[in-house]
Amino acid sequence: MAERLRDATSPYLLQHADNPVDWWPWGDDAFAAAAERGVPVLLSVGYSACHWCHVMAHESFENEQTAALMNEYLICIKVDREERPDVDSVYMTATQAMTGQGGWPMTVFMTPGREPFFCGTYFPRAQFERLVLNVTRAWQEDRDEVVAQAGQIAAALAERAGPVPGSPVPAGTGGAGRPARRRVRVSRSYAGPRVRRQPGRLRRRAQVPAVHGAGVLATALRAGHRACC
Fold first, then answer.
1. What does the pLDDT look like over 122-166, one tens digit per residue?
2. CATH fold for the domain made of 11-221
3. Furthest-apart CA pair in the chain: how many Å?
4. Which run of H or E residues covers position 79?
5. What's the rounded Cα separation, in Å, for the pair 199 and 210?
6. pTM of the full predicted structure?
7. Helix (H/G/I), strand (E/B), else coil: 118
8. Sheet harboring 23-24: ordered strands across?
9. Domain map (residue ranges) of the chain
10. Which helix (H) or strand (E) holds 151?
11. Intra-chain end-to-end CA distance of the chain, in Å
C-alpha cells in the first residue's frame, strides 16, 4: 500500500499517514485512479482539532476490517479543511443541501468526475461499513442513475456555490442541464433554505433545487450523524 500522505505538509494529513486506509491527497491522480478502476471516490474532510474527526479515525480508519472495505471498493481521499478551504466549501454546501446540516468529519461519496451523490458527517464504524457496501451496491447495479444524479447535483451547486474544484462544470451554466425533480436512489431529499438549531453543527441549509431520494441507501441514511463545529 502506498503511503501517499507521508510527504504532506498538513499536520492533519500526517496524522493519517499510518492508517491502513490507502489514502490519496486531493488531486488529479486520485480521480484518474478512480476512473481507471471504475469505482467511486470517498472524500473525508476534517482538521486537527476536530473531536469527532478523531473518533471516526480511531473507530474506522484505524480498523483493518473497515480499511479493507474502503480500499477494495473506493478511492479514498483525505483533505484538511484548513489547507483546502475551497474543497471544503463546495462539498460542505452539498452536505448541507442533502442532509440539512453540516460539520466535520465530512463524508462525501462522489463519482470519478468529482460530482457528489451522497454526503454525511460522522458515522459509527458498523454504520459506516454498511454505508460503504450500500454505496458500492448502488454504484455497481445503478451506476448510470447515480452518475446522472451526481451531475445534476454538481450543476445545481455550480449555479450557487461555484464549480466543483477541478470539475469541468463552470459556475452559472447549469452544466449538462437543469436539475430534474425526480426520485433517485442515492441521495437524501433536500430543498430550500432552513435553519436547524443544533449545537455543534453548521446551521444554514443551502438552497438548491429539490431532489428526492429513497431506496438502496435508505437504511444508512436513517443513521444519525454527529459532527463537531
1. 999 999 999 999 999 999 999 999 999 999 888 888 877 666 676
2. Glutaredoxin (3.40.30)
3. 44
4. strand 75-80
5. 26
6. 0.77
7. strand
8. 23-24, 75-80, 41-46, 106-110, 116-120
9. 11-221
10. helix 143-161
11. 33
